[in-house]
Amino acid sequence: MKIGVIIISTLTIVLASSYLLKAKSLASGMGVSPATLENNYVKPGSTHSQEIIITQSSPDEPLDVLLEPDMGNANAWISFEPGTNFQIEQGVQKYIFKMNFTVPADAQLQNYNGFLRIKTSSSSDAVAGGVSVIQGARLDLNFRVTNEEYSELLVRALSIADVEADQPIQLKLKVENKGNYPNSPSRATLDVMNLNEVLLESLESSGMQNVNPGSTEEIFADFASNLGTGEYFGITKVYLGDSLLREEKLVFRILERPDVSATEEIEREETILDKLSTGNLLATLITVLLVTTASFFAVAMYIKKTKKDETAAEKRRLFIIFFIVALLTSAIMTAIINYDQLFPKEAEVKGVSVERIAPRELYNVYAQPDLNSSQIYEAIESETFPVIQENEEWYQVSLPNGQLGWIGKLSVKELEQTDE
């Protein structure tokens, strides 16, 4: 009897332990961030939006998600994208949805606190007896509605694209506005240097586009420059007032302006005279004149010898017939002389082909890790080389012709790692 009780107790402990371990595994398989959503400077009539991320360690099957906010009367101000119920597809480890907190214009100025329940379930969560295991998370919601103005900008990324000569240098900024009114960086500066780190120009730009509160947007700053073609790098600084928001070193190039090999042809319907060259047109006119004159004399001599007794009407009819024959003969001879112009090949009918000749984008490869050493190769855009060794500023690479050369790291925008 004691043995039976011991066995039953042991089985109970094992089953309970396995259930708890399974629950712990399920709970640890999903994560939600951030843990708290808050904004202490939400203005009446505005919307605070924030992304929420659900991550899964083993997304082996679809996951159903249910969102339940609990903020009392302020529940009506909350909405979700794509909704309060949605499904995360199988295989998706990271899923992002958005919560919007839209405050009415007549909302009271006070704190609004609560929480958001995130409940998830899948088909494998069902256990014996029809009971379902629901995984979940709880996020705290803390918002303060106020008329105070608050300014906070974050510059998430900076980049400068290659630009044609005589065009302004354009800095692209990815800016997040965490304040509560439209705002933008007050100014940006760009110190342009050559590859020897010699300062060439100090530029400044202002008047950038505003970023809406609670959003992340791409804006641009233009710098007027007199630089010639070549490769440069610049120290870029972005300010809000006197506060430095971000500083970064960027590489860019100024390219030659592209040439157009032919001007655009104005499309119009060509007549026969358009298709004839000047020389062929003159030859055609002379041919028509000679044929017509010869035909006229031929008809006159024919009538004089054979049609002495014909009436005037019959003679006119003969002249008309021979005149038509002369015109047809002239037309046939014109077509023969000008066959290539009147009946060109299909490719020629389409007219002049217009091509935009893009400049080759080249990078210099040197014999030694020194800009003053001899240039032994010109690499084109996107060409790749095996790296032999490197130092602080240069890569030694193996060239297609078997030589070894050195290319500056500032010229290499991406270095791909490959397994031998």
Task: Give the DSSP E fraction (strand runs of 2 or more residues).
Answer: 35-45%
Number of strands: 24
Spatial sequence of strands, sheet with the most strands: 2-9-8-4-6
Which CATH first-tier class of the largest domain would you pick? Mainly Beta
Largest sheet: 5 strands, mixed
What is the residue-mean pLDDT, rounded to a whole number? 77
**What Rg do the Cα atoms give?**
41 Å
Q: Low-confidence spans: pLDDT under 50, at least 5 residues? A: 1-28, 127-133, 262-270, 345-360
The number of helical runs is: 6
Distance between the termini: 68 Å
CATH topology of the largest domain: Immunoglobulin-like
The string of secondary-structure elements, in order, is HEEEEEEEEEEEEEEEEEEHHHHHEEEEEE
How would the global form be characterised?
Answer: elongated
CATH A-level architecture of the largest domain: Sandwich
**CATH H-level homologous superfamily name of the largest domain:** Immunoglobulins
| Helix fraction bin | 10-25%
- Taken together, the total number of domains comes to 4
Secondary-structure-based class equals alpha+beta
